[in-house]
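Reopening: structure tokens for the magnesium ion complex, inputs below.
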Amino acid sequence: MVHVGIGYDIHPLVEGRRLVLGGVEIPHPKGLEGHSDADALLHALTDAVLGAVGEVDIGHLFPNTDPTWKNAPSRVFLEEAARRVRARGGRIVNVDATVLAEQPKIFPHLAAMKAHIATALGIPVARVGVKATTNERLGFVGREEGIAAMAVATVDLPE
Ligand code: MG
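Re-run output (same inputs, fresh job):
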């Protein structure tokens, strides 16, 4: 039985932080603020995978009050979501995501992001989609106040 999950995340862009998206560090004057590395793309993907198997969301699994996750690479969250799929006897069929960012340009980094995500999930890179769009200068993303991401995941689970 194929299950689908959805995920969304956003983090503020601030000075004095690294910008990490999809596990890839991108040179930029500002970075994403958060308890972990604030990788909004990996957070959205983690919630999509967790949602597909009916698990609680990333904020409950990895609370930002827990010092364990302070500045943690968000890859560990995605790996744990994938582990929970395997623990249910399931397999991730594919994931797809869109990054919403006015700046910087995301396209040059998409291939590296896909490779990182595929490795974390333990699936071929051909099953990982990542796209990027600006917000046409509209709203908080358009004003470069933050970067958002949305994601879906499909998981094949035994009935
Ligand atoms: Mg987040």
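The chain has a mean pLDDT of 96. The beta strands are 2-15, 20-21, 24-25, 30-32, 91-100, 128-133, 146-156. Marking as resolved unless the reporter disagrees.
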